[in-house]
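Hey, I'm writing a tutorial for new members on how sequence and structure tokens pair up, and I'd like a real worked example in the thread rather than a made-up one. If someone can provide the structure for the chain below, I'll link this post from the tutorial.
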Amino acid sequence: MYTVGDKVVHPMHGAGIIDSIVHEKIGGAYHDYYVFKMPMNGLVLKIPTQSMDMIGIRPIDSFEKIEAVFLMLPEMSSEMNSNWNQRYRENLERLKSGDLMEVAAVIKGLMCRESRRSLSTVERKMLYTAKQIMISEVSLAENTDYKSAEARINEAVKAST
């Protein structure tokens, strides 16, 4: 169970803060919801408290875990399936996992692919989404601004290629 002020990560939206817990009647029944706010883009979600595990909501990673991801980035493989449809499905599964290491792998793979050839519109959007997820978690965990977190991610990937 989370409390107001907890920093958590939604697998497809990134990191945010539990702003409040509300009790609302929807469809004739009362349910408790976490009000999840993302400081980065102002997104507000109401997430049923009983669905948190099913959705994959988790606490943000520790500073040490995030540092480990940055240290592992140079060693991550940037190889991806040559079939774009299969590559898209694999990357989407990685994002849905909610694991920061998997999100970093998507970023690295797509940025390396982009440096060799242009990405399709769908893959460009996926790269943007993956970066936003990682940026939001890094900035909340390390208490830094979004531009600094993005620059750090870009530098780490470029240094590893």
